[in-house]
Amino acid sequence: MKIINLIAIGCGVIAPLLSFSLTAKADNPVFYGLQMEQFEYRAGDEGEKLFSWNGGAFIGTDELKLRWQGEGERDINAGINEKLENRLVLQTPVSDFFDVKGGVRLDTPKGTDRWYGTVGITGLAPQWFEVDADLFVSETGDSSARLDIAYEGLITNHLILTPSVELNAAFSDDPEIEVSKGLSNIELGLRLSYDIIDRSISPYIGIVYERKLGNTASLAKDEGADYEATFAVFGLRLMF
Amino acid sequence: MKQKFVRSILSGMLAAAAIAMSSTAYAANYDLTVDYVTIDTGETQTRGIGYNGSSPGPTLRFTKGETATIRVTNNLDQPTSIHWHGIILPYQMDGVPGISFPGIAPGGTFTYQFPVQQSGTYWFHSHSGFQEPDGAYGAILIAPQKREPFKFDREYVVVLKDKHPHSGARILRNLKMMPDYYNRKQRTLSDFIDDVSKNGLTPTLSERGDWGKMRMTPTDIEDVQGFVGLINGKSPRQNWTGLFKPNERVRLRFINASAMTYFDVRIPGLTMTVVQADGNNVQPVKVDEFRISVAETYDVIVQPKEEKAYGIMAQSMGRSGFAFASLAPRVGMRAEIPPRRTDAPLLTMADMGMDHSSMGGSGMDDMSGMDHSTMSEMAGMDHSGMGAPKADPFYASGSGLIPKAVNGGKFLSYSDLKAQKPLYADRPATREIELRLTGNMERYSWSINGIKYEDAEPIRLKYGERVRFKFINETMMSHPMHLHGMWSILDAGKGKWNPVKHTININPGTTVYSETEVDAPGEWAFHCHLTYHMATGMFRKVIVEGGPAVAALKNGSQ
Q1: Which CATH class for the A2-239 domain?
Q2: Percentage of chain B surpassing pLDDT 90?
Q3: Nearest 5°: phi and psi at B281?
Q4: CB nearest to A97's CB, from B187, B188, B215
């Protein structure tokens, strides 16, 4: 049902974009691309086996792009999706190095589903930090924010060390999805990749530390659930 | 089959007729087909586009004064076009789809016809999509009616090309996804460590910080690396060879038909005498090396005296690739490829158009003591204060791109070019048009005065005026600006002896002037000749208003 809604909204978003592209002058070229920053197997310090991904795809012109952003985490042992997020946003430049984006997000993990409206910015901050900052308002009226920062450090021109941080915060409690007000979760990553075919396929190894914060962590502790985990990760960075 | 046979006989007869006619020197006819071809560099085989079944296409020869008739048949499944680069002709024959004509539809034929009013070395290429980087290019040689002011015993065309394994469309899509997709010359951890040990930690961090603040890198010199340099369609391994007898004077007609790559050309052991630039004779200059911008041509004369093979070495400006060929006294002899230079240049704050003193970048110690105050207004100015050797005024003072000859000898500068015979009387320009070359590397979008082609108004010129273009390069890359249909007289500070060109290179952080006698009515293209800069917006339409009514030309578009 939610998927059907997502498709419906997706079509609603695509339609104006396509009409924009078609009415644009013929020499306003349309580009597209697919990028998976993370596409990896995660082996946890307590025997967890997860498959995790984080990526996106876009189509559009310099002025307007439609972007899909997807993130997920599947527990291979249990066969359930612990996290499953899909976002569809329209994106347009606001400055030399930043775009604004707005659209919808649908979470359909095992457990409670959630709809969100979202706005955010994405771009390149001084000193080459790739920044994504997003605000979400859910169907239950709860709002939250996320900040993603990554940096590509060149060990050589093919061997790249990428530290990253993802920080989530909630502005209100949403017990159904086990989130409490305040900083709710942080994920730190360090991945070492090697470009083997152009920039298309770059295998990597790395470590990821994930931890719930504040009341969200207390909630997990009360339930006897894990509130932090460290993973060794093996994956591919993909760009097509 | 039968039909094809008949057709080939017919075209054979046409070709024979063309030869017969050209020998009378009043008309020259060519038939060109635009075909899918396989381009084999010895390392990669890629599907590309060529003419009459090969890339590069055949060399077209004309004589000044005759009428050129070129029937172009499109065997592709996409529209095509041919632009005659540097040729003065009626605008409907200029071959830019959407400006000069509608283009040539798949299966269609278009007959180009124009009077040949000039002589020299030129080239032709597709002006549609990414057909030119994909292989659609060839040379044009036009013989003068009178004797040339230099002697030679034999001549060769030397066409340079940066053949990339990816198609042009794929390259641009990749650049749009990630502007440094092809840049494998970026500074790494070991460069950082080297700089720290050389300059100390604080200056190195401060220097990195200055670039990071701008979100620019000093290694943005070649956007598209990973190509194989070709000379006349041959890779270094395939080694194109031109034969000579010792002591002969050999004229080499260099054409840079590359999509994106400037080449530094040298022939170890030989001095080159530059006699022509962009098809126009210049007062001879002896050089050891020269840099050829994309779309330019230089004719040089060399005189190999020994019974040995000489190598023509063309290393790219960013040192990411090279082309190589041999001049040899006998078939089968090949020259040794000289050691490749590894001194990849790094841009400096001067290339960013920034005054050194305002940056506070103590990491730029190598530049201290240089005066940057006059940087943006330097073309044609005397730099006697700079100390010997005189710095090339066509580079920003302190630029990282300033070339040096490998053997320490003479490197050609624009300021060495003087017209052999002025094409136009010298007169003051009637007005100045300012063109700021602008762009955003991170978005991979390029523009003029901050506006991309699709959003820009055309530049309107009046027939009979002489405009002065002021090019201000605000980007960190060099841009070879090409005006179609009319000559660009480069202001090299030589007055009436200023050289006459069709493509003017403007280096980062510099301002360059050129003047154009507006003597060709119609609508023309004006753009950066780097394929992916042109494709993303560094392009303008020029409309010449007034002047003699443009005759409705009959053409063979079917």
Answers
A1: mainly beta
A2: 84
A3: -65, 135
A4: B215
